[in-house]
Task: structure prediction
Amino acid sequence: MINIYIKIASLIMLLITLISCKDVVNKVAVDEKTGQPMLVGLTERTAFEQPEFLEWFNTEYFGYEPDEFILSQIKELSDSVNIQIFMGTWCSDSRRELPRFLRILDEFEFEQTKLQIINVDRKKKSPTHEERNKNIEFVPTFIINKNGTEVGRIVEFPIITLESDLLSLLLGIEP
Result:
């Protein structure tokens, strides 16, 4: 009889451990500087549909018209590409560039499983430390990897346009 209680207790402990190890996604915290909500950590696109983020996201997303010719060239080069985006919902550059960048990716149907969005606080830190060893000094930082190797970054704002800079990086040319 005691054996059954031990097994049940062990099972409960295992379940609690598994639940506590689950990644926290779309976590909202309070910006200490403004008192406003901000996202921190791994973020899915659905997080930007929350009322506190939706207006600025939609304004930039739907207001941006990427260059179709450049998009067609990017699409041809994007098979082995993975992208990590470090941003802050508290940052005006991130609020401008992230929705535009996602619009570009959507236009050529970039595979969403190859995209990772990480929100950082004002100290450029995330709860699970994805920024560690990434040298994130400014946001947004778009890290472009091809065949598992970093080919370049777009930091804060593009040199020309987001799509032009992305194409240059994929071609191995400095924007």
Q: What stands out?
A: The beta strands are 27-30, 37-43, 81-87, 115-119, 141-146, 149-155. The chain has one domain: 24-171.
